[in-house]
Amino acid sequence: MFHIYCPYCEELREEEEFHPKGEAHIVRPKDPEACTDEEWGDYLFFRDNPRGIHHELWVHAVGCRKFFNVTRNTVTYEILETYKIGERPTVTAEHLAGGDKQGNVQVASGGQQTVGASGAAVASVKGERA
Amino acid sequence: MSKSLKQPNRLKEGGRIDRSRKLSFTFNGQRYQGHAGDTLASALLANGVDIVNRSFKYSRPRGIVAAGAEEPNALIQLGSTEAAQVPNVRATQQALFDGLVARSTNGWPNVQHDLMGWVGKVGGRFMPPGFYYKTFMAPASMWMTYEKYIRKSAGLGRSPMERDPDSYDHLNQHCDLLVIGAGPAGLAAALTAARSGARVILADEQEEMGGSLLDSRELVDNQPAAQWAERVLKELAGLDNVTLLARTTANGYHDHHFVTLHERRTEHLGETAPLVNGHRPSRSRMHRVRAGQVLLATGAHERPLVYGNNDLPGNLLAGAVSTYIRRYGVVPGHKLVLSTSNDYAYRAALDWLDAGREVVAIVDARPAPNGEWVEQARARGIRIIEGAAVLEAKGASRVNGARVATIDAGAFKVTGQAETLDCDTIASSGGYSPVIHLASHTGARPTWNEEILGFVPSLVKGVHAAGSARGIHDLAAGMADGVAMAAQALEALNRPVQAIELPQVEARREGAACALYQIPHEKPTLRAPKQFVDLQNDVTAAGIELATREGFESIEHVKRYTAMGFGTDQGKLGNINGMAIAARCLNRSIPEVGTTVFRPNYTPVTFGAIVGRHCRELFDPERYTALHQWHVENGAEFEDVGQWKRPWYFPQTVNGKKESMHEAVARECLAVREKVGILDASTLGKIDIQGPDAREFLNRVYTNKWLKLEVGRVRYGLMCKDDGMLMDDGTTSCLGENHFLMTTTTGGAAGVLEWLELWHQTEWPELDVTFTSVTDHWATMTVTGPEARKLLAEITDIDLDRSAFKFMDWREGNVAGVPARVFRISFTGELAYEINVQANYAMHVWKTLFEHGDKYGLTPYGTETMHVLRAEKGFIIAGQDSDGSVTPEDLGMQWAVGYDKPYSWIGKRALSRSDTRRTDRKQLVGLKPKDPTVVLEEGAQIVFDPDHAIPMPMVGHVTSSYYSPTLGSGFALAVVKGGHQRMGETVYLPMADGKTHAAEIVGTIFYDPKGERQNV
Questions:
Q1: Which domain of life is it from (chain A) (predicted)?
Q2: FRET partner for B331 with CA separation of 20 to 30 A, picked from B375, B554, B961, B984?
């Protein structure tokens, strides 16, 4: 069971309080009528299913009722950061691939430490809207 | 004392049992006696009980093999009464209590004389893996018949059929460091962390903490090792920052250091929790621990060797022999042969000798063993047969001999002439497998360590392993490792480390172990006596060899084919031997064959412990409306709608006979159509929406238009997902220019609120609007029928004149003297007023209505009547007449779709996709059965041609179907392919009983098609 840091409540809470809502950062086309059927189908139905870093949308359903984003490793289940709607992730697959190869995750090498977005990490992206 | 109460295998002294307390117990109907401190297993061995079970598949006699959680055979059914039955308890883990009643789990008709025994004797070649599937599957229709007998003869216990008198608790716990296992490494780790000031939970599954220290031959600080354990435990018990949990199994490691501990609080005292001051304490606790760091000090399980007839009673693990002697004062036999690959197992022979019984020989697979205990054994005159192993056990219901020969383990060959040793017990040891189950639950795959000949755990961040759990079996080194790993965990927590002084442990010179799993036999494996790998699932070496021959090369496939490591056993004893055998057959190394993973739970957990208090009336919350008590007092039958209890119908007693549902519903329907009825509609979801952009928001989430809705008006709306499929429906009223009240379906309330929040928070944060659930704040009473106006007029100051208060208006005023909002909306097709009052006024208003309603024939009605009335009008229920694949157009509700709204509202774009434009989509229609007495089955499949060969193309199904007392016939709503263009056509509904009903496709409105009755 996950231990999730709600960036609005600023607390680690049990997974039971949250609902997962699928992949994060799916933007609804600004002009849906201008989309082809294929483009609209992509927006509606197609999602990434990465092995490794995944950005997800969650809602603190029985808490503050706020939606927020979670960066989670789908192999180790480690939550690397949580951040508010409108903010961008600081941990990405590209970012990690450039570093110590964690993008190509080994099962046993990852951790499961839940880390809330650190104060510094949040501050550095505060005000930036998607 | 009768003869049966003697304990022939009990030593005169020694062990950690309390000889002053005698306990009597019953096993398979026979009475025995044991002592406080015994497990059921040690007491059975003390009484010389050899056969404790019959095996799962071959029904062979089985005895006790181990002394702990890894015991594969001694699965028992506990309980003297039906309510107290517990299946699959390991006798090795069940503390003895006075009056304990146990039976073998398996052994139909009984364990001593077994009807199925022939299978075990002749079944060698006849029951290979997959036997049941291959043999009993054809003809398929007979499987049910076979299965009944197979289950009976091979079953694994049974559930109680009566209510459990015990209660169970869940506890949420937090700590800095959770230490699992209170053996040498775990105690050293817990003490280190405790002295450093960390909050520590120390959990251990056994009756007594101390692990291997409780039966060790080794001295700690020149005293028996158990004394050091007692000292440490005493110190820990006195510390406020330490929680000691004995009899507590860590059964599952879940994500993010969430570990479930199962504490058995009273199972050592009786089969149900004994009363304490008239109160029955909870039988067990499930501790839901969220730990900062986790330290696994779970020790190791000894691996048995795989040789012929190694399942006969009298074959034990070497370590178990020592445990029974040293901890329980029980020697499980008279003449011992020890077969080993390592030095440590020699302690079994030394302990046996100390107990005053005969060691026939130690058979050591190594050519020249020379460790300290080897020398001791030699010095004490024990015959040591070098470079040899036990090829097979002899005997029928108990070991009476051991065939021994020199072997070449590498070449898998018997090299010498076999000799038969006269003995009644064979102890074996093939090395030690770290208990890596919990580490494996984290998803980290273990790695093979050639040095210790075992899998060691891979560890995720924040999880540590110490001592035997990671292959450090030496006592002194294991304790030091406990300290080191605790320090590592404390550093991760940023806590200072207070190192502890380790006790003195005499160094012991130990020779290297050799790799030994399956012992070769003169005959090939397939023809040799059965060599068991997994005793619980009756998996043999031959079975694994056969699996590899049939092409199963991955160990995961071999496991599924043979059932190795399945069930309650989870491969504790057998998995590694099985992998070694598969590796030998495939000519690969063990790690090349695969690795071994384990799933929760480590040992079986009762359902009671899992559900805790969340059962019966507390299983799921029940929601009641403010009027619930009135419904109860007036005899309502209730229906569950989500978590709500809603009145289903109100049966009355007519001429001393209670109405059937059919009769009650007919009466209620006619009352509404002819006079006036009243429904408690309080469960409808209600969302208060406010803000300058509220109107724009509604315009985007509903399919229809909202910009021009005036204050005082109400509108029905459809809500779609962005795929264009209907999600929910309801009315929304304009309370003020920037203030709306939305209603949702009863079951959809929470989902709709989350949906609105999702779009507001993620897509349109610039809209200034807020949402508040007010479902519970307002009670809703629907007064409907031709007399509704007259009735309501008697108790309200609102002008009800039809020109002042029109259909789809709402008005504020007083009803029965309390403030109310009254909405003129109709879900029945009749004149209707939905009265909303503050929930705590509801009962007053409801009763006042009845005081005035008698003369109008006011009749309470429930959800069933509501359904009939709405269906007669063709009003849909989202989620019943729609199912997530139905668009507003499929429902024929284009009138509620604002195609020309400027903003591309949710669902709009999808309505012009090629798939949603298909003309053969399933569309909502009415069905009129040709036979008016027929009420079609909801869910019944529809076909166009009943004479079509099976399988017939199915073209739709019935979504709602009722008997209409108003029409005097059955009627239905259904979805049919291209149904809107098929009015007047006949469709057919073939039923399971062979009948086929015919029905005509008609419009969805069966009653008052022009809607005149609601608009009076």
A1: Bacteria
A2: B375
